[in-house]
Every structure is written in structure tokens, then in C-alpha cells.
Design goal:
Elements (H helix, E strand, L loop, with lengths): L3 E7 L3 H12 L4 E5 L9 E5 H10 L7 E2 L1 E6 L5 E5 L9 E5 H9 L6 E3 L1 E7 L4 E6 L5 E11 L10 E16 L6 E6 L4 E7 L2 E9 H9 L2 H12 L6 E2 L5 E9 L7 E3 L5 E2 L7 H16 L10 H28 L10 H15 L1 H13 L6
Parallel strand pairs: 1-2, 1-11, 2-8, 5-13, 11-18
Antiparallel strand pairs: 3-7, 4-7, 5-6, 9-10, 10-11, 12-15, 12-16, 12-17, 13-14, 14-15, 17-19
The protein binds flavin-adenine dinucleotide.
Length: 378
């Protein structure tokens, strides 16, 4: 007889780990099946204030890189908007944390049973679902559950609505000559957005570039790389120096829903978004939180039943569609006519940024949605 759970989670990324802890807090019999990931490459994540507070309620996290101000501007074109934590009565709009640091903290001393391995197959039945998984030696075992939650980052081959941006996000860190004062910069450039995020005493760089250019910047020597970056970043914080190791990742937009009984998708498995507004993980954590809240105290409910799954999908639909849609629009329109030299789209965007700056209620409305999701009440 196989071990039996209410929920089996496939995937030990931050979303799967957070869900396992949230369900455990609510007394739901949960099993996590997670691969032993060893990449450890630096990947800065801007977590909203709400997401960071949620993670801090699960595990101790050091809030050493607060974002107190977000400044949005264009390279070589007019217009600027500044959002400040103080406008929301907060110390920080969010915090920057390395993805591996976050995942390691969430995995530490995990209480629900956790197996190191990969989910290889699942077999939905009338009253439960059998989940097969293989340990690193290839030995296959099975567990039974009411519900299988795929939090595998979309790495499993599933049909999805997919759009390839033909861009890569180049990630590294650099040292600014002057302090950053907790100011995060989002700079729209002709190639794509460039984010400079306060990270310790350095800036974490998330630089979106067409794939060929990203490859060139990955291979460029330090002076060439720094000169190109400095040209876009300007001299706001003095000379940028000491770049850390660089890596790049292709950018896709994906959206999918499970077509199978007793299977739910959350986090990047359900939707993968462009990093322009730093929304992917924030959205995935809201997926996990809503699922845990809806499962709480449902001892007599079949969590894998169509009624439970449909209610969950309905609840998440608005936030998901609006966040995926707005992120996509932002990723595309900010490139049109961008770059040095006045253009009509650049001037229009500049006017929009200036208008936003002149209208605090509109700015606060936008910032709240970035922090709390599309459903946030004004
Ligand atoms: C450059 C860049 C910058 C970003 N910046 C931000 C940001 O500032 N703010 C933000 O909110 N988001 C950001 N994101 C998005 C964020 O990184 C993702 O949304 C988040 O990591 C998704 O977490 P996840 O747990 O859903 O998936 P993943 O992190 O992909 O984790 C999935 C896990 O499942 C495992 N797995 C896969 N298949 C199986 C299987 N069959 N069985 C068991 N395990 C399996 C994988 O090995 C992995 O460990 C950024 C993304 C990029 C690319």
C-alpha cells in the first residue's frame, strides 16, 4: 500500500516550498517531491513587501536589502516617476533577495515529508491520484493523494500558450561608487528594460537584451561590459565597477492550465512572465497562499475534486490574467521608439511618466497593484 496524503507537491522551487509550509501550518497532510538543485547561481529577486512578509511568516529571513524607492525612467528620453515606501506608510516597497538564499531558507528543516527526486508520472482515478517519482538512483516509488500540485516551474513538457520574446535577461551584480540609498531603478532602453536593484552594498543588474546582444555582453571583457552598462545607467551613482559573474536566461511568456483531473498548476508551471516588473514569483506566492487558504479546515472536502479545483481556478483567474497581460504589454511597448533621440512613442511614454509623477493617487494605485496583485482593493 502506498503512503497517502491530501496533497502531493511536485517541485521544490520557492513556490512549491512555500506551499508545502503553508499547507503544513494549516494541518493539511502534504508530501513534497523536490529535485536536489545545485545551480546556486546568483539570481536577485525583488519580492514585494507582502510576499516578503509572507515568506518571513514561514521562515526567518534577513531584510538586508530594502527597496525604499522605485524610480522609473527612459534612456535618452524625458519623463520620470518615483514611487516611495513612505507614500504607503511602509519602511520598504519590497526587498531584494537571492533566489537560492530564499529557497534554502524555505527548505530548511522542512516538516512535511519531503522526497528528493523527480515526479515521473501520475494516474488520476475516481477518488485519488497515484503519483510516481524516481529518486536520484532511478528507483521508482509511488504515493497516493487527493490532489497533485505541479509547481515544477513549467519544466515538464505540457501544451501551453507560449510566446518567445527572443530576448535574454543578463544577470550579475556591480558595485556603485556612491551608495544606492535603497533606490531601485527601472530604465526603459531600446533593447529592453534594465533594472538596477539595491542588493547589500551593490546593485543587482537584470538587463534585458536581444539574444545575440546578450551573448555578446556575456562574453565581453569587463571594461566593454561596464562601459555599455554605464552608458544606460548614467552617472546616478558614480562609476560602476567590480562586476560579478554574468549569466543569462531566455525570456518566454507561458500560460497553461491543467486539463487533467486531480492536477493543479501553480507558480511558473501555470504562468511564466517577463521579468520587467518583477512579478513572477510574487504571483506564484499568491497562487500558493490562496490554495493553502482554500484548503484550510477542509478535512471533509475532496481537495482533488472538480468543485475545489474549479473554485480555486476561478479565484486566481483575474490576478493571473491581469498580471500576465500587463507585464507583457509593458515588455513590448517600452521598447517601441525607445533609446537616445526623441521619438513620438518615447515622448508619449515620457508624458505618461510625468503625469504619473504629478498624480500621487494614480501612483499609489499602481504601486499597490505591483505589491499586492491585481485584486488589491484601492
Ligand atoms: C532574470 C529573472 C529575474 C526575475 N526577477 C523576479 C523578481 O524580481 N520578482 C519576482 O517576483 N519574480 C522574478 N522572476 C521570476 C521568478 O524567478 C519565478 O517566477 C520563480 O522562480 C518561479 O518559482 P517556481 O517555484 O514556480 O519555479 P522554479 O523556480 O522554476 O522551481 C521549479 C522547481 O521544480 C523542480 N522540478 C521540475 N520538474 C520536476 C519534477 N518532475 N519533479 C520534481 N521537481 C521538479 C525544478 O528542478 C525546480 O527546483 C525573475 C525571473 C527571471 C528569469
Amino acid at each position: 500500500m502506498n503512503p497517502r496524503y491530501s496533497v502531493v507537491i511536485a517541485g521544490g522551487g520557492p513556490v512549491g516550498l512555500a506551499l508545502a509550509r503553508l499547507l503544513e501550518q494549516r494541518g493539511c497532510r502534504t508530501c513534497l517531491i523536490a529535485r536536489a538543485d545545485t545551480t546556486g547561481a546568483f539570481r536577485p529577486i525583488a519580492l514585494s513587501h507582502a510576499s516578503f512578509t509572507l515568506c518571513q511568516s514561514l521562515v526567518p529571513l534577513v531584510a538586508d536589502s530594502p527597496i525604499r524607492t522605485v524610480e522609473v525612467s527612459q534612456h535618452g528620453q524625458p519623463g520620470r516617476t518615483t514611487m516611495q515606501a513612505s507614500e504607503h506608510g511602509l519602511d520598504a516597497l519590497g526587498y531584494v533577495i537571492d533566489l537560492t538564499t530564499l529557497s534554502t531558507a524555505l527548505a530548511h528543516d522542512m516538516q512535511p515529508p519531503a522526497h528528493i527526486g523527480s515526479v515521473t508520472a501520475w494516474h488520476p482515478q475516481a477518488s485519488d491520484i497515484r503519483v510516481d517519482w524516481a529518486d536520484p538512483s532511478g528507483q521508482v516509488s509511488s504515493v497516493d493523494a487527493q490532489l497533485l500540485v505541479l509547481a515544477d516551474g513549467g519544466h515538464g513538457m505540457r501544451a501551453a500558450r507560449e510566446y518567445d520574446y527572443h530576448q535574454q535577461a543578463l544577470v550579475c551584480s556591480v558595485k556603485p561608487e556612491r551608495g544606492h540609498d535603497g533606490i531601485a531603478h527601472e530604465i526603459f532602453t531600446a533593447d529592453g528594460p534594465l533594472a538596477l536593484l539595491p542588493c547589500g552594498d551593490r546593485y543587482a543588474v537584470v538587463w534585458t537584451l536581444p539574444s545575440a546582444q546578450a551573448a555578446r555582453m556575456l562574453g565581453a571583457d569587463e571594461p566593454t561590459f561596464l562601459a555599455a552598462l554605464q552608458n544606460l545607467a548614467g552617472d546616478r551613482h558614480g562609476r560602476l565597477s567590480e562586476p560579478g559573474p554574468r549569466q543569462a536566461q531566455p525570456l518566454l511568456r507561458r500560460q497553461t492550465r491543467s486539463q487533467e483531473a486531480r492536477v493543479l498548476l501553480i507558480g511558473n508551471a501555470a504562468q511564466t512572465v517577463h521579468p520587467v516588473a518583477g512579478q513572477g514569483l510574487n504571483l506564484g506566492l499568491r497562487d500558493a497562499l490562496v490554495l493553502a487558504l482554500q484548503a484550510a479546515g477542509q478535512a471533509h472536502t475532496d481537495l482533488g475534486g472538480a468543485e475545489f479545483i474549479n473554485r480555486y481556478e476561478r479565484t486566481r483567474s483575474f490576478d493571473r490574467h491581469v498580471t500576465v497581460g500587463l507585464t507583457d504589454v509593458l515588455a513590448r511597448v517600452t521598447r517601441i521608439g525607445a533609446g537616445p533621440g526623441m521619438t513620438l512613442p518615447g515622448l508619449t511614454r515620457g508624458l505618461a511618466l510625468t503625469a504619473l509623477q504629478a498624480c500621487p493617487p494614480a501612483r499609489r494605485f499602481l504601486a499597490r497593484r505591483m505589491m499586492l496583485g491585481a485584486r488589491a482593493l484601492p
